[in-house]
Amino acid sequence: MSKQSPSRPTNNRRRVKKAIFAAIVLFLLIVGGLAAGGYFFVQSALEPVDPNDDTPIQVDIPLGSSLSVIAETLDQEGVVKSAEVFKYYVKYKNEEGLQAGQYTFTPNMTLDEIISSLKTGKVTGQGELEIIIPEGYQLTQIAAEIAKKTGVKEEEVLTLMNDKAFIQEMIQKYPNLLTEEVFAENIKYPLEGYLYPATYHYDSKEKPIKEIVEEMIKKTDSVLAQYRSSMEAKQMTAHKLLTMSSLIEEEATEKADRRKISSVFYNRLDKGMPLQTDPTVLYALGEHKSRVLYKDLEVDSPYNTYKVTGLTPGPIGNSGVSSMEAALNPEETDFLYFLASPEGDVYYSKTLQEHNRLKEKYITSHYEGQQ
């Protein structure tokens, strides 16, 4: 028999080669298209939002804002085209020292002009009214400060802060921050912990209280925006984060490592131990005292962590970025106890015996020496 020509296998190989070649070409075209699209997107985002628009845009950059928060804020307010491009441009330029404050930008500003303004900390329109809210302030203290600076009665400020219709409106406007959790059973004040500590400036002392309170809520929302992914990964709601960070804030001294304090709280929660943190007792009592007495620990309240296991129903005050970050990223330790000396030094221990020894050395002896 004579050998037949292998035409069919050869044709199959040719078709396979053509298909592979076509696939490679298509892949290269897609990659090239994406690269070109990405290039033009970045080039566009590096340009002003609108070169012909000089309309003033007022932007508030909260204290403690990270580069991500600043970029997101500028994007949301229409000052830059892309938060991500602005963020990476700042890093590429190796720019540092962007400052918090109240700024006036325009859509025709270049990224370099925006960065320059943020570095100089030019605060515009400080005006007649300045309200300073420190870290660790409770809602009643904030209401008192607003009342003092605006001339509005403190009771009126508190009434607004606790008005359900107003809070529902804020829930609609800031759904990533405020939820129905603020109306949970045993919550003392729905907006406790949600009013960001910062310095607020206004052109007039006639600024509506509603707008002042909303601005404080808005700042908290913008600060927490940088932690959304971490919160989702840890399945932590804004309410839980602000609750834990408020406990850390109230316990921390200038010398304290907030991440270590955070680790103690989480370690105790994991073991089903009560947190036993004094600031919660004072919050339950509604008092500000330099020292918690044994009789105070008996107060009957869902906020008294000497009697109730777990977190408090809600925050016991506001908190800054360092405490929020500590609540999200506690240090890895075996500590179950800590105490702060009258000098502000914080001592940690793994056992009750060790804790009592430190307490005797740094606390009991101090007060006995004063008698």
Automatic annotation (TrEMBL):
Q: Which GO terms describe its cellular component?
A: plasma membrane
Alphabetical list of InterPro entries matching this protein: MLTG-like (IPR003770)
Keywords, sorted A to Z: Cell membrane, Cell wall biogenesis/degradation, Lyase, Membrane, Transmembrane, Transmembrane helix
The UniProt record lists the keyword Lyase: yes
Residues at site: Important for catalytic activity? 251
Highest taxon listed in the record's lineage: Bacteria
Could you give a GO molecular-function term held by this entry?
A: lytic endotransglycosylase activity
Q: Which reaction does it catalyse?
A: a peptidoglycan chain = a peptidoglycan chain with N-acetyl-1,6-anhydromuramyl-[peptide] at the reducing end + a peptidoglycan chain with N-acetylglucosamine at the non-reducing end
Bilayer topology annotation? Single-pass membrane protein
Q: Which ranges does the record mark as transmembrane?
A: 20-42
Q: Report the locations given in the UniProt record.
A: Cell membrane
Gene Ontology biological process terms from the UniProt entry:
cell wall organization; peptidoglycan biosynthetic process
The UniProt entry, under Pfam families, shows: YceG (PF02618)
EC numbers, comma separated: 4.2.2.29
Where does the UniProt entry say this protein principally localizes? membrane
User: What is this protein for, i.e. what is its function?
Assistant: Functions as a peptidoglycan terminase that cleaves nascent peptidoglycan strands endolytically to terminate their elongation.
In which family does this protein belong, per the annotation? Answer: Belongs to the transglycosylase MltG family.
Q: What name does the UniProt record give this protein? A: Endolytic murein transglycosylase
Q: Which organism is it from?
A: Bacillus thermotolerans (Quasibacillus thermotolerans)
